[in-house]
Design goal:
With 144 residues, this protein is of the alpha/beta class. The protein has 7 helices and 4 strands, in the order βαβαβααααβα. The protein has one domain. It has a 4-stranded parallel beta sheet.
């Protein structure tokens, strides 16, 4: 029996706002988690977080948009589009050996029946890699 894959953000967990059944493993997917993040999840798999250079570029472009007067959420989402974050993250998942191994391990766990809830920092209104990761984990495995 296959497990389920969902996603949420750490503040939703901390404030009881996350949609969860309670039997999921809370899997952080953050490159550089804080101690309080570790306290909110069962485990963290940093290899499934966006690469550091992509995170740095996203932060820089977000700050540029904010200096031009955009709100935090709007600047974050505009930066995603500007730097093609989604495609670059998907490429990193496919090309980095550590990410491929971590993804295969997590997919195996889900295929074996474990339900997981992917967790990172971004709230519901900001684009986030965890939704791309959820889509990747729930997509059918390529044949061949």
């Amino acid at each position: 029996m296959d497990g389920r894959v969902g996603d949420t953000y750490v503040a939703a967990l901390q404030h009881g706002l996350a949609d969860r059944s309670g039997d999921e493993t809370l899997v952080g997917v953050v490159r550089e988690p804080t101690s309080w993040f570790h306290a909110a999840v069962d485990e963290n798999i940093p290899e499934l977080g966006p690469p550091p250079d992509l995170l740095a570029e996203a932060k820089q472009v977000t700050e540029e948009f904010k200096r031009r007067g955009m709100c935090d959420e709007g600047a974050h989402n505009a930066a995603w589009e500007e730097i093609d974050f989604a495609d670059r993250y998907r490429t990193a998942l496919a090309s980095e050996a550590a990410a491929r191994a971590a993804l295969a391990d997590l997919r195996g766990r889900v295929d074996d029946g474990e339900s997981v809830l992917l967790v990172c920092f971004e709230g519901e209104s900001k684009r986030c890699h965890r939704t791309l990761l959820r889509e990747r984990l729930t997509a059918p495995e390529p044949v061949g």
